[in-house]
TrEMBL record:
Coiled coil: none annotated. Residues 11-243 form the AB hydrolase-1 domain. It comes from the Bacteria. InterPro entries: AB_hydrolase_1, AB_hydrolase_fold, AB_hydrolase_sf. It comes from Tunturiibacter gelidiferens. Gene3D superfamilies: alpha/beta hydrolase. SUPFAM superfamilies: alpha/beta-Hydrolases (SSF53474). This is Pimeloyl-ACP methyl ester carboxylesterase.
Length: 289
């Protein structure tokens, strides 16, 4: 798993979604790295991490690799931030390695079993249809859909970086292989139960113009015991659209919740977290519009 890092201070791990890579976090890391040691990974098949075939336990294996990164860099605890499908990896890691997560932040969390894949990518997921239409759909997705979603000169560099693993003659079929990750019910079926067992303070971001249903953030907030929701005037790619606003929200949230997770863990029966959580007093956080 390819990883970059920069900065100093308390550690933050950033996990991107699909089909982006670590470059999603570039502007946000620039805002945070003066006070935080920022880590950003490339998930399999994106950025510089080789593709890994999907199979049973895929999310758990990603969590294990992230834990190895934490050990390798000598980090006792870190904040974990996920976007889109990267939120599912973040939840899996936070659920399995809870004592190692100070705070959790999920942006546009694509984490529920009733998730509807983006319609262009959904066509690629269909056998035979995907193989035949892959070159055309690939062109439409990158030249039109992604360019509209990432409008603006400042987003040209990350857009090129997102596209790079899917460039060349075989790029369209590489994208097809990436998005064929199975049925949402199978891949994400256990996520709701894991949300209810998370003890760490959690910040949920929703873009007011996001293509992902706002109900996903609302449902996540209703399940996670110590959660706060922030709505920003953005599209789906929140950390690229409003890096300064996101940085302010994260810094405030991390500072206000320092040590909260340790207190909750000490007050909880670790063998039955979901039924013995101790509610924390909700902390005020401004909604940025």
């Amino acid at each position: 798993m390819h990883c970059i890092y920069q900065g100093k201070g308390d550690a933050i791990l950033f996990i991107h979604g699909m089909p982006t890579n670590r470059m999603l976090w570039g502007p946000l890391i620039q805002e945070l790295s003066s006070d935080h040691r920022c880590f950003a990974v490339d998930l399999p098949g994106m950025g510089e991490t080789p593709f890994v075939p999907y199979r049973l336990g895929y999310l758990d294996r990603q969590a294990e690799q992230i834990e190895q990164l934490r050990i390798q860099h000598g980090i006792e605890k870190w904040h974990v931030v996920g976007h889109d499908a990267g939120s599912a990896v973040a939840v899996q890691y936070a659920a399995r390695f809870s004592p190692r997560v100070s705070c959790l932040a999920l942006m546009s969390p694509a984490i529920f079993p009733d998730l509807k894949p983006f319609y262009l990518l959904n066509a690629l997921r269909k056998p035979l249809v995907g193989e035949v239409l892959a070159p055309v759909l690939h062109l439409i997705f990158w030249r039109i859909a992604m360019r509209r979603a990432l409008a603006g000169e400042s987003n040209e560099t990350p857009l090129r970086a997102f596209y790079k693993p899917f460039s060349g003659f075989t790029g369209s079929w590489q994208l097809m292989r990436l998005v064929r990750w199975g049925k949402p019910q199978d891949m994400l079926g256990e996520i709701p139960a894991k949300l209810a067992a998370l003890l760490m303070p959690t910040l949920l971001f929703q873009g007011s113009r996001d293509v992902l249903p706002a109900s996903f953030v609302e449902r996540a907030a209703s399940l996670i015991p110590h959660s706060t929701v922030v709505t920003l005037d953005t599209g789906h790619f929140i950390p690229l659209d409003k890096p300064k606003d996101v940085a302010v929200c994260l810094q405030s949230f991390f500072a206000e919740n320092s040590g909260t997770n340790d207190t909750a863990i000490r007050a909880t029966n670790r063998s039955a977290w979901s039924s013995h959580t101790v509610p924390a007093e909700p902390l005020p956080l401004p909604v940025v519009l």
